Amino acid sequence: MTKHSPLHAVTTHPVTTHPVTSRPGTARRVTNGAVSLAVFEQGPVDAETIVLVHGWPDTHELWSRVAPLLADDFRVVSYDSRGAGESTVPSRVQDYQLSALAADLFAVIDAVSPDKPVHVLAHDWGSVEAWEAVCEPGAEEKIASFSSISGPNLDHLGKWIRSSASKRRFLGPVAQGVASAYTVLFQIPGLCTVPLRLWFSKHWPAFLGFFDGLDPKLVNTAPTIADDMVNGLKLYRANIRASLGKPRDRYTDVPVQLILNKYDKAVRPVGYEDTEKWVSDLRRIEIPAGHWSPISHAGDVADHARAFITSLGECRPVKQSS
User: Fold this and answer.
1) Dihedral, 6, 7, 13, 19 alpha carbons, nearest 10
2) CA–CA separation, 220 vs 63, rounded Å?
3) How far is CA 107 from the centre of its chain?
4) Would you say 35 and 104 are in contact if contact means Cβ atoms under 8 Å apart?
5) What Rg, from alpha-carbon coordinates, does the chain have?
6) Distance separating alpha carbons of residues 181 and 241, to the nearest angstrom
7) Which pLDDT belongs to residue 67?
């Protein structure tokens, strides 16, 4: 067993959930304290559960091409993260800290699968949030596996940057720094609000076609995209400087699969080169995709998530406290 960080533990507030039927796309609300999350479900209710977590500036709609490919084999659960879509939008920057977002994920898991661990598939900031969750002590009791796409553990990233610098290996960190340069602008309150609302939100499919080389017709944008873009900037302000400035030792015994997008312009695969140090069971698979692979390469994402889960065998039940 690997050593977990004792620095903090995620605490979820009492969970409230409303019943949902088994019809595809039906929804429920799951609350974590003052935050109410819109949760969506499809697939057989008695199958193993996989929870899909989106990033910025998406909603659960990011998974609209992946979820149907998994729904024959799994109970597929997705949700709008706090600040996005139909979920609560906290106003304070500190309410978007990773500890709060990990608590939201655990609240969803407790609501949809209280007696058996779930699988998690996450992208972009959703993956960053899921990394925070799987590195919590005892996470393996709730999460059976984690497939990560284009979202690093920020503590691991900070440790890797420092390690690379101490060895005078600057090429990788410089490449990731260039790819992440836009996040510096996102740190400045108000600077990006107008262009995001007035241009990017209105032309997002076309921008993804330019940035990622995907077919804009594949992009489903939520009606809340302008608000989602602006509200989601708090993710960057609440977490990047704190995590990279003072990275923690964060270990996990949850099996992790890195689905690495070869042509990702935002998250370079090189940033994961020492992830084995932190994960006791790590697999890697590379696909010929850009950053938004759940849109452009939905079949590859679904196939690799399914194959990883199958390779792990049946989930073990959650240990009951005495």
Assistant:
1) -60
2) 9
3) 15
4) yes
5) 18
6) 13
7) 97
Instruction: Please report where in the chains the tokens 């069971």 appear, as a residue.
Output: 281
H or E element: which one contains 192? none
> Is 60:38 a contact under the CB 8 Å cutoff?
yes
**Contact between 238 and 81 (Cβ < 8 Å):** no
| Region for residue 280 given its phi and psi (left: phi exceeds 0; alpha: psi -120 to 50; beta: otherwise) | alpha
- Picking from 195, 147, 154, the residue whose alpha carbon sits closest to that of residue 176 is 154
* Alpha helix ranges (H) inside the chain: 67-70, 98-112, 125-134, 154-166, 171-179, 182-186, 193-195, 204-212, 225-231, 233-245, 293-296, 298-312
Amino acid (one-letter) located at 208: L
- Residues 288-311 have pLDDT tens digits of 999 999 999 999 999 999 999 999
Q: Could you give the CA distance from residue 23 to residue 45 in angstroms, rounded to a whole number?
A: 10
Q: DSSP secondary structure string, 95-145?
A: GGSHHHHHHHHHHHHHHH-TTS-EEEEEETHHHHHHHHHHTSTTGGGTEEE
- Mean of the pLDDT values across residues 107-115? 96
Pairing of strands 49-53, 118-123: parallel
Q: Please enumerate in sequence order all residues whose Cβ is within 8 A of that of 257, keeping only pairs 6 or more positions apart, or say none.
A: 145, 146, 147, 148, 282, 283, 284, 285, 304, 305, 308
Report pLDDT digits (tens) over 177-229: 656 666 767 777 777 899 999 999 999 999 999 999 999 999 999 999 999 99
